Amino acid sequence: MIRVFRGLRDLYDLSFASYKPLTSKTYRLKTKEGLYYFTKKSELFAKEKYNFLYHQGIKNIFYPLRNRLGEFVSDYGKQKYFVSEYVGASTVLKELQARALLEELTDLHERTFFKRQLSADFSRRKMELLFEYLQYKFNVLEAYVRTLETREFDEFSIPVLKNYRHLLEAKKIMGHIHRRLVSDIKEKKSVYFAFVHNNPRISHLLLRSGKRFLTSIERAKVGITSLDLAKFYINSEDINIDRVGLVEGYLQRFDDDFYRNYFCFLVLLYYLQGIILYDKDYVSCQSFLYASSSIRDFLSAFSLNKDKTE
Fold first, then answer.
1. Does 3.40.50.2300 match the CATH number of domain 2-85?
2. Which residues contact 137 (CB under 8 A, 6 or more apart)?
3. 55-72 pLDDT, tens per residue?
4. Cβ neighbours of residue 257 under 8 Å, at least 6 residues apart?
5. CA distance 308 to 306
6. CA-based, 20 to 30 A from 226: which of 4, 197, 267, 290?
7. What ranges do the domains of the chain cover?
8. Which of 63, 55, 68 is nearest to 111 (CA)?
9. Handedness of CA 123, 125, 128, 129 (dihedral sign)
10. CATH entry 3.90.1200 includes domain 94-306
11. Is the CA virtual torsion 83, 14, 30, 7 positive or negative?
């Protein structure tokens, strides 16, 4: 990092004197004047994403400082870094931060919305791959449950066997939703796309001088905003907010069930992806129970278990 530190010092009109690691990818820099800055290892195409948003006039992104070449992201060797002003952790309640995060995501979406047809080739193939993954995942889960049924019941196997029905219910519902989405794709339905953050969590919301900014856009892309909504819902799980009300409020802007269907499909998909089956019973059991209880609550909250026959 010392070489990178010296390289950044040459790329920016700042006299960096020291640095302190914050995470494996982030550092706090200090100038000779005692001012603090933040640097982070960036990713491929981050420079293009910042440029796109900047030229679109998007104001709620916390842009890095420009280097001497006028670029937001600096290349040093085989790595990419950006430097920005350092802002300390927020003391605002998590509940308020979560609401503010969704508001800023909504603003980002609305300022970059455009409409286009779903691709019969790309979108359908993507849904087919997701469904193939789901079939594989459910086969693995079924094999795991069958293994538990053949052995003596204990404190790990009983909770799993009792809650397996929630996953079977999710399987049926996801099958129905998948067919609806594929039907929309076959029809080449025109839907709204936008620039989605793709990693929305309150740690990626910056509060500074009374203004709010989104950070960490390295994973951002053009997509359907249901993606941000699904990840916001899951990432806000431990925050005491009305997630269902906030999500439903967002979805009301659309007069098409496509966005709700895609949101529900993604949330269930992410919960299933999170199930880790390990050779240690307590690890598998905890992972299974977390996912099954989350799925049960989600199906009930969005009344999905009432739609199975549609």
1. no
2. 272, 273, 275
3. 999 999 999 999 999 999
4. 180
5. 6
6. 290
7. 2-85, 94-306
8. 55
9. negative
10. yes
11. positive
